[in-house]
Amino acid sequence: MAEIDLALLQPVLAELGPQGRTALLPALHAAQELYGYIPEPVAAAVGQALRMPLADVYGVIDFYALFYREPVAKTVIHVCGDPACSMAGADGVMKVMAQQVERHRIQGQIQDTIKVERAPCLGLCEHAPALLIQGAPVPKADTQSWEDLVSGKAQRPYSVVGGDINLLTFNCGKGRITNLDGYRKSGGYDSLRKALALSPDAIVAEVKAAGLVGRGGAAFPTGVKWEAVAASNEPVKHVVCNADEAEPGTFKDRVVIEDDPHRVLEGLIICAFAVGAHKGYLYIRGEYNLQYLILKAAIAEARQAGFLGTNILGSSFDFDIELRRGAGAYICGEETALFESIEGKRGFPRVKPPFPTTHGLFGKPTVINNVETLINIPLILKVGSAAYRHLGTQKSPGPKLFCVSGDVVRPGLYEVPFGVTFRHLMDDLAGGMRPGHKFQAALFGGAAGAFAVEKDLDVRLSFEDLRAAGLPLGSGVITVFDETRSMQDILLRLGHFFADESCGKCYPCQMGTQRQYEILQRIAENRALPGDKDRLLDVGWTMTDASLCGLGQTAASAVMSAIRLWPELFEARQTTPEGGPA
Amino acid sequence: MTDSINLTIDGNPVHVAPGMTILKAAASAGIEIPTICYHDYCTANALCRLCVVEVEGARTLVPSCVAKVSEGMQVSTHTERVKRARRTILEMLATTVDLSEAPDIQAYMREYGAQDERFPEAEQRFSPVLDDNPMYIRDYSKCVLCWRCVQVCAEDAQYTHAINFTGRGFETQIGTFFDKPLPETTCVFCGQCVAVCPTNALKPKRQWLLEQGHSPDEIMSLTRTERRRRMRREAAAEQPATGGKS
Ligand SMILES: Cc1cc2nc3c(=O)[nH]c(=O)nc-3n(C[C@H](O)[C@H](O)[C@H](O)COP(=O)(O)O)c2cc1C
Ligand code: SF4
Ligand code: SF4
Ligand code: FES
Ligand code: FES
Predict the structure, then answer these.
(1) How high is the ipTM of this complex?
(2) Confidence at residue A576, expressed as pLDDT on a 0 to 100 scale
(3) CA atoms of A55 and B160, how far apart (whole Å)
(4) Beta-carbon contacts below 8 Å between A and B
(5) Which positions in chain B touch A529 (Cβ < 8 Å)?
(6) Rounded to the nearest 10 degrees, how much is the dihedral formed by the CA atoms of A123, A127, A132, A138?
(7) 3.20.20.70, 3.90.940.10, 3.30.70.20, 3.40.50.300: which CATH number matches B136-236?
(8) Host domain of residue A519
(9) Which pLDDT band holds residue A582 (cuts at 50, 70, 90)?
């Protein structure tokens, strides 16, 4: 092993050291950029500089999938193995890649400089099968040549955006990033100006009146959340934008950030003003490197133009945003795990109560909102809550972004008013099933979701209609499967996802996701044992009912939905383990 | 605030002080709720979920070791829903961890009718015994991840921070910085972790050696380094720094 030159790290530690433990993930990212991985002496130096226990530093490194504690290849290729990509041929891509690496190794053209890894959903589902090559997104990997891929010549994906309306996605899908000028030309930051002329209470009231509920999956009323934090007497409060998007099938936040980053910032700034926060964090998943850089540039632009910093737009309001990157952990999208991550810890969800509105980031009252929730804020202030409510249904007002992937002609991001039918979204907007194929099912809500079938085609996409149909809206994810797809295979991939992403804190999910995956393996391999269905149900109910956080509580949701719809798939195919008599 | 909270537990009216957990309130009424991770002197993290109970109006089961009582609360501690969760948790645990030296958990298994082979072809969390110091051994195949050792090593008692977690999910384990042997960490061998471990995953070295069939003499010699060092330290403490004779 080459000598580790700790001097390289000194500028990083000099800058981050004074912040203490909260700077751990930024420091580890910086270290990994310098050394390719995080060698022991580097980890020790980081721990000392941040004045934190070394065992804890190691615990954090080992928690996040994107941190390596051993040397890895120079180029790491992440191949998505989740449903949308697997259906588009990800397994084949993975195999070809491995063969190519091997062939080139034998020919001596490359040494161990390329490593191919299976990855969870990369948020590029409309470009399936998708890859990340050393962090750079690659669309439709099956159509790109190996040479282009490894030389970095593969073109980057551009978002596919459509829908009935474009109130939120006005600047999206145009094949370019909307910079500050472009955003302002489209009316950007006018709502902030308007907001600063209002009282914080009036803004909270307006958001409440608009009936906006969170788009991150939990559907909690945004105004109520803001009100609680605004009412707190604590001098220090925080606002956080959750851009950790990692639910398989979800890519809406990625598209918004990529094409129109300032809209997100404007929403967060207004939120901070309304609740009285002076510091905000924007936490973006580690795999969204391109989008991280886009946000970084946008934040710099906004600061330069006086939308961030002191005396924003000449008012007495001071606010700034710190951009943070995750490092490969779905659980960090859970709000309290996300706080832990910003605090420099493993992404373990906290026991609730207490809730973030009283004990959030650094123990302070905190508003945390999803990217899509926040981009509704400038719109609400622009048109007013009454006009906003004209859109959508009585109980689900406003516009909604849907991520449609899988076996449709035009997978992409679609903006519609709440209340259109699933059929309209799938057939009219996403182009319907691919020619010659029939609809079999669709997964609503991602891995944590449930299956819709033929009878659900005319369900209206609103919170109330979907609840009545027993389907989750989740964060607006719909993955469509045609008649050729094996549901057992889809379930196996979902099972793999949860087993990989469970944080391991509470028993039901720590062990339940593993047991569920093992049984799904037998089922996918057509060797289910007698009692496997009951085992899945016991594990499923236990996770749903007794897990500590939303991950475990929904980790069996798709499986239980499949058991209800297709019980025959779970029947025994053999009588004893180890291939006994059938 | 009132000085007493009225609730019912399994139909019995119970009056307790505000701020009490359901677990303690039940105990005060003579109702026992099973627990694994809970320990009176450690931070309760509500991990094992064996203590879950049904609370009228709650969407999911509620961990009684951390959930506080509230006025008018209706708690059921042994419904079918609760028992199914407890039984399944125990069955998953029995196929994951070596519980041979955890009699309390075994008793729960009998009480809840949990089968230890409920999950065929289940992966076990196996790891070789770590014998890297003269004071105690670490046999993580027996570890139920109750977190107590990590907590007493940190803010709950010792502030030594020698151990933390490695991996995540099913692969989580307790470990040191880059898996170093304990003597190379900040561990001060206070033994608090050994004292709180509920499954004998952490065990005094002497006891372990005895079980391995070593004679007391052998054990003396195998654990001697530490004794010698201690004697030397004590001797040094008695003498002024200049008197370097030994
Ligand atoms: C396992 C898990 C993953 C989650 N991932 C995300 C995510 O990636 N983005 C998000 O906004 N919310 C996510 N959430 C929901 C958050 O906990 C939280 O409810 C949300 O950020 C609140 O914002 P909202 O009210 O604007 O929706 C996740 C929840 C769980 C349980
Ligand atoms: S439910 Fe899963 S992800 Fe959530 S705390 Fe428990 S183990 Fe961690
Ligand atoms: S080693 Fe013992 S005390 Fe530590 S987590 Fe495991 S079972 Fe608990
Ligand atoms: S990127 Fe492959 S499923 Fe989302
Ligand atoms: S005793 Fe309550 S969760 Fe373990």
Answers:
(1) 0.95
(2) 73
(3) 10
(4) 155
(5) 120
(6) -150
(7) 3.30.70.20
(8) 487-570
(9) very low
